[in-house]
Amino acid sequence: MATHGRPGAVRKSKKGPSGGTGGLGRKALEGKGPTPKAEDRPYHKAHKSKQLAERSAAKHSGNRNPGSSRNTRGKGTEEMVTGRNAVVESLRAGIPAKALHVAIRIEMDERIRESLKLATERGIPLMETGKTELDRMADGSVHQGIMLQIPPYDYADAVDLATETIQKWKKGHINNAPLFVALDGITDPRNLGAIIRSLSAFSGHGVIVPERRSVGMTASAWKTSAGAAVRVPVAKAGNLNSTLKSFKDKGIFVLGLDGDGDVSLPDLTLGREPVCLVVGSEGKGLSRLVRENCDQIVSIPIDSAMESLNASMAVGISLYEISRQRSA
Fold first, then answer.
1. Which stretch of 43-47, 119-123, 207-211, 267-271 has the lowest confidence by average pLDDT?
2. 147 near 127, Cβ under 8 Å?
3. DSSP of 235-288
């Protein structure tokens, strides 16, 4: 009786050993190597994040000017004032603002209502912003659902500002001789704001800040100036010593303020001339090179040798004496 195999089964004949490929399939056997990192895979979101970060870094590095700022008007970076108290105080002080960001469905209180009212009166755009975006913009700061976006300050160039001021003085467009204050190593924005306020009170013409390792026009400086920063320009110097030399070439006397100066403030005889006061930090004072570039080092007599004056106070007292001499 014949036996039938399973339906559809095919009997295979036995073959001998197959021939080799001669090494032609070696690459296929090697594989594609280790799996690339997520940031190196073109279609992975980590790759796109890496590209965005590189473009952002390149953009910021391209905006930096390592050399002198002469013939340019440098701009700082945008600043975010966060928190209900800080925002309403900034709006009261009249700080320039680009936009007011408010959280969607924010819980209202008197500070929020006043902030919205002040921003509306000044024509500041109101932006309803989600919490996630506010968290990102705050960069770790506590925002309480509201933040004020401050535009970058448009700094004048120090040498250009001095040149323009001297020309206006010589043409009779301004009555007082040019009067400037330069900051050497000061990093507290409240000192800058207070100096701007004093300079405005005594008819000064500008504050000079170095481009590096120095305070800039932050929201805190704006608030401390109590609106005087609108009237008194702040200029940047790419190199403070070079700028002071340029001032001297233009006929501006450079006077350094220091506790052990060779001239006491009441004995100052240059008050009626074009003057640039240079003030250093309370701890370190004037740097060595800045001292060497000063025409005179002026000291303010005080009763106690144990006491010292902070930068803004020393500038205010000196500006008063110069103003007194000019009006005498």
1. 43-47
2. no
3. EEESSHHHHHHHHHHTTPEEEEE-TT-SEEGGG---TTS-EEEEEEBTTTBS-H
| HSE-up of residue 265 (Cα within 13 Å, Cβ side) | 20
CB 224 within 8 A of CB 189: yes
Per-residue CA distances from 193 to 61, 78, 89 (Å):
28, 18, 15
Alpha helices in the chain (DSSP H): 26-30, 45-63, 84-92, 110-122, 131-138, 158-170, 189-201, 219-225, 240-249, 288-292, 311-327
Beta strand pairing call for 206-210 and 79-82: unpaired
Distance (Å, rounded) from C-alpha 175 to C-alpha 177?
7
Q: How far, in Å, CA of 204 to CA of 229, rounded?
A: 12
Residues 6+ apart with CB under 8 A from 246: 159, 162
Tokens standing for residue 290: 């800045």
* Residue 290 · residue 278 · CB < 8 Å: yes
User: What are the Cα distances from residue 231, in Å, to 207, 234, 269?
Assistant: 11, 10, 28
CA distance 192 to 186: 8
The DSSP secondary-structure symbol of 124 reads P
Q: Directed axis angle between helix 189-201 and helix 311-327, to 10°?
A: 10
pLDDT in tens, 267-300: 999 999 999 999 988 777 889 999 999 999 999 8
Cβ proximity of 311 and 191 under 8 Å: yes
Tens-digit pLDDT profile for residues 97-120:
899 999 998 889 999 999 999 999
Using CA atoms, how far apart are residues 30 and 299, in angstroms rounded to an integer? 80
Rounded Cα gap, residues 133 and 272, in angstroms: 54
Strands 206-210 and 234-237: parallel
